[in-house]
Amino acid sequence: MRKPIIAGNWKMNKTIGEAKDFVEAFRVEVASVKDVEILLCPPYLAVHEVAQRCQGTNIAVAGQDVFWKESGAYTSQVSAKMLLDAGAEFTLIGHSETRGRFGKEDMTEGQFAFFAESDETVNCKIKVALAAGLKPIMCCGETYNERQAGNTDSVIKGQVKNGLADLTAEQVGGMVVAYEPVWAIGTGEVCSTPEAQRVCAMIRAKIAKLFGDVAAESVRIQYGGSVKPDNAKELLSQPDIDGALVGGASLKVPDFVGIIKAI
User: Which pTM was predicted?
Assistant: First the structure.
């Protein structure tokens, strides 16, 4: 039985002080939750403070990304060792915003080259995270234009195949994969429940083909994209959706608590 996993990705929101206040209120509200794994993904500057305040609770902490080198002349980057030292147990890898894939209409003017994430860099980061003892959450998802062109399945399958290249079945089985249709992230639009289930089932089937049934049955697959308390229960009741990667709704304690308790 796969344990549901709900992660709150704060993106570039919350100062250290705001993060402290959130955790103080949040941990009380979810203290009785036993059957859901709960993660907070704060900005790098708040990882240590959030991790300190989550010690001894049922809340774990994740980084929002990780670099594929242990150290060196890589200005602005954060290593797996640094995240672990700050108290993180997980890390997001390959989020659409690090891939430079933004918004409903693919936001051509907003696709800044300096994000420059690719399936290959995602794969490098996953390997480094696993080697260091961080648990990766690999994100995948199609843009609005790709969906309109009928390319959703090929895009997602490609991201899964290339992102997980050269890993073992055991490694993949212990991971989390997050399906986030880019056109639904922060737009208020939500992939219909049947379609979200279909794509998550397709991801599981692709993993089964690549790594075997045991890995496919063990890997946890999240849905992300405008998840809110009022749609969480239906989404999270699907057989192949094992949790949610929550953006905007994770910034307010009542909203995020509502999503967690909906499961």
Answer: 0.94
